[in-house]
Amino acid sequence: MPDTPAPSGPQEPSLDEQIAAYQREYGDLDPQVEQVVSALGRLNRRMNVAYGRQVATLGISNTEWEVLKTLVISGAPYRLGPGELAKRLGLTPAAMTHRIDRMAGEGLVTRDRDENNRVRVIVELTHEGRSKWLEAMRMASVFEEDLLQDLSGEERGSLGDMLTRLLRRVEDAQPDAGGRLTDLD
């Protein structure tokens, strides 16, 4: 990642400062729990910013990246209906239509009528869209390897297992929270 200038204005408090403030205001706080969840939250935000900057160099947005990724994950021939895309991304049909319109105009996807059901529309990844996805994956791989460089293979495996257990707990408790409830465009 290229160096970026330090943001001007008020800085976010350190994790220690944040936890101390929380403990001051809420005495029952478990500082170990707060350190884990606060660090995960900050890491998630910063990684999203980093990925957004990477895909921006390719001329696409995070939201377009999400659509490309969803089509690739669906498997060859990388086609889904707009309703299925919206459901997988947690978007309204109107928000998905807006996104598909933009991406079709950029040549990242095509939108055609299903030959077997002329009422149904199919969104398909184009060669250009797949190329953008592959380049974003290459960039993300470099960033992720750098991010985890200080962890041994065993530590990476353990961290992955632990985070997966936490994710499963949240998914079990909040099964409807997989996608976004509103569009972030």
Structure description:
- It is a single chain.
- The protein has 185 residues and is mainly alpha-helical.
- The protein is 61% helix and 9% strand.
- The chain is built from seven helices and three strands, in the order αααβααββαα.
- It has helices spanning 15-25, 31-56, 62-73, 82-89, 93-105, 127-147, 153-173; strands spanning 79-80, 109-114, 117-125.
- Strands 1-3-2 form a three-stranded antiparallel β-sheet.
- It is elongated, with a radius of gyration of 20 Å.
- It starts with 14 loop residues before the first helix and ends in a 12-residue tail after the last helix.
- Residues 181-185 have low confidence and may be disordered.
- What is the strand content? 5-15%
How widely separated are the two ends? 24 Å
List the helices and strands in order.
HHHEHHEEHH
Give the overall pLDDT as a whole number.
Answer: 89
Number of helices: 7
* Structural class by secondary-structure content: mainly alpha
Helical percentage: 55-70%
Q: Which stretches are poorly predicted, pLDDT < 50 over at least 5 residues? A: 181-185
Radius of gyration: 20 Å
| Major β-sheet strand ordering | 1-3-2
Extended strand count: 3
Silhouette: elongated
Largest sheet: 3 strands, antiparallel
Strands, helices and their partners?
Elements: H1 15-25, H2 31-56, H3 62-73, E1 79-80, H4 82-89, H5 93-105, E2 109-114, E3 117-125, H6 127-147, H7 153-173
Antiparallel strand pairs: 1-3, 2-3
Helix pairs in contact: 1-2, 2-6, 3-6, 4-5
